[in-house]
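ARCHIVE CARD
SHELF: 3
SLOT: left
DATA:
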Amino acid sequence: MKFRINYILFRQFNNLLLIALIGFIFVLLIKYNNYSINKKHEEFSRIINNIYLKKTTDLIISKIKSNYESISHKVSSGEKLNDILKKYKISNNETVRVIYELKKYTNPNKLKPGDEIKFIIKQDQNKSLEILEYPVSKTIKIIINRDYENKLKSKKIVTKLFKKNILAEGFIENSLYKSALKQNVHPNIIVEFARIYGFEIDFQRDIRKNDSYQILYENFVDEHGGFYNTGKIIFARMYVQNREISLYRFDNNNNEEGYFDINGKSVEKALMKTPINGASLSSSFGMRKHPILGYNKMHRGTDFAAPEGTPVMASGTGKIVRAKWCGGGGNCIKIKHNSTYSTVYAHLKSFAKKIRLGKKVKQGSIIGYVGSTGMSTGPHLHYEVHINGKKVNSQKLKLPSGKTLKGKERKLFEIERIKTDVLLADIILNKN
């Protein structure tokens, strides 16, 4: 029995010894393998870092790169596609082919200033065109490239856009514009928001610190979430001096768009209270000591002090009857809204794009930018309202209220209002 126990112990000892020996050999193999790998790595690094090899590689890469040139051309006013391709020495044959391919989808010469045409040219004797990207719109572009037969072929690329509802809210510190920008609200939306409330709120006198706003609006993005453009404001709310003003967007049966309060009353009037956001009232209508001339003189307008470059909006829809230098008024614009009302905007730094005599402008659209041109002591907007040719105090002007929805329109509005309230509640719940 004792012999059997000793035999068993001896066998266990041998087994342990064998395991230990195998483990030792395994460790030696790993170390050798690591040593071998390290040696190989050192050898490889030595070869790679060889200065002559590096120079040769860099030379080859530079030669490959130099064979092709990538160009991005921004279209100037009056430029045609023929002229652009000729500028970059594209052959007539290839120019004809490009135009032929583009005509399948659009007018090749219907280019707009600021459009970007991108192309890649092979730097050979013939200046071969390899790829051309032609913008049709923000979401459509035409790609022309070479096929396997070395022929130029075209393809229409359409970027599918998705509507995304955005809720922005916050407190007003100094101005609505600056406060909303801090919350990453797009400037287009801020200007539209100010336009909507421009009938009800004087942004220079009514706003107090810690007044708040809420905006539900649309953004259009691509499939990867990339921003393309802003859409409509669906809902807006302002808390001003303990007063809540909520407005809903509604498109009625007459294809008219507008904003209405909870009772279906339109917010829109003939003229906005103030045509500028983020400014302070610096001089009212009436007698005052002229800041330059030094004597008392009737001031037949309202001055709003604001940083240079601040956008100025048309206070009402109408036609531009003056857009030029007006002596002491500097750069000025006059808009005739109807047979009764006209408005004047003076001391502008510059006019907005496409502003010219006879142009029709919509209420709230940007017409110019605050400046200090003419007889002026600093950046500000001089604003006038004329009724039947007579200058009146714009701050005391009583304008007729907007229409109130009735009948079928009112019922449709109530349905849309409830839908908006549900959407707003859903976004708030998911946000929290």
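SLOT: right
DATA:
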Amino acid sequence: MICHVRGCRMERRNSMSEKRRDNKNRILRNGESQNADGRYVYKYYDILHKPHFLYSWRLESTDKLPAGRRKDLSLREKIREVQKDLFDGIDSQGGTMTVLELVRKYIATKTGVKKTTKAGYKTVVNILSKEAFGTIPIKKIRHSDAKLFLIKLQKEDKRSYSSIHSIRGVLRPAFAMAVEDDYIRKNPFDFELVKVIVNDSVIREAITRAQQRKFLTFIKEDKHYSRYYDGMFILFHTGLRISEFVGLTLGDLDMEHKTIRIDHQLQRGSDGIKYIESTKTTAGTRVLPMEDEVYKCFKRVIEKRKAPATEPVIDGYSGFLFLDKDGRPMVAMHWEKYFQHSVEKYNRIYKDELPKITPHVCRHTYCSNKARSGMNPKTLQYLMGHSEISITMNTYTHLGLEDAWEELQRIQLQTSQNELGLRVIKTA
């Protein structure tokens, strides 16, 4: 019996001595090992039984880092992270792809997007290709890293708020995809941008009714710019996007019923090639009524339009209303220049200068004027082609104290008239 017990003790000692140990005589656990150079290794298998390896110069977090080695998590800290990921179903290997690789993967899933969107994707890829941030594994990106990257773009690279907003507009859904794919746990770009960087965007203010009248009167009477009067008047009184405006064809106008069909827009790429795109949103596809003066403008445009020798055709569309001197469809840039140069001429002549006016200012002005007139917000949303009422009310309507006073006086007058009417009825 004693011999038997002694034999058991001996076997236990032998098995303990046979356990693998590191160079500090510490017992190594299953999967752990130490190379001849002192570096620790951990071998594990993912859910597909594919082998992977973790490396570190330290076994425990309390170990001293060997001289000349970069600070890193200890092996057992890394093991705990991997084990937690495996338990939660997180693909830790997927998390090793870089930010740039993730963005490229995300872009690959976005098929059927507009050319303008593709151009935006290309811009983001070009930026990340040059930035150290693009080389970092996505699992290592924290909220603070994402914020510091965007701050760097604004402060050091001098990129505008709108540009950074567009960049974040690609990064955030890309990281959201990584979360959905179980590569990472949280989206590091899920935060309010305005709380991180300064919104230095220039607000496109609507001009006043008086300024609009002065400008259009000047255009109408000017020997040179009067040729653009009808187009400018239409922009001020329809709220059309400039891409929708230049995309108008003869077939889009129903002069009998006084309506304008909006179902496409004309764009020009960075390569100078013109192309047709669908409206900005599904809400952008709409039929607009022509006000009397707008109808008269369109009628003159049609009458003055000189049919070119060969009608230009772009993606199946022809009969464009606004053609340049060479008989080619005008694009946004043409009208932007017309507005710029005409305002400059006005300001050279008159002391009471006009602010900057662009086709988009026309759109803002139209929306604000209709809001001031008391138009139903949902009707205004439809006319503007907005997908959400918040865009209509918060972005495009510029109302102030003067407008508030006018509205209060209008309501007060209406209330007084109603009360007077009730008295008349009672007296009768």
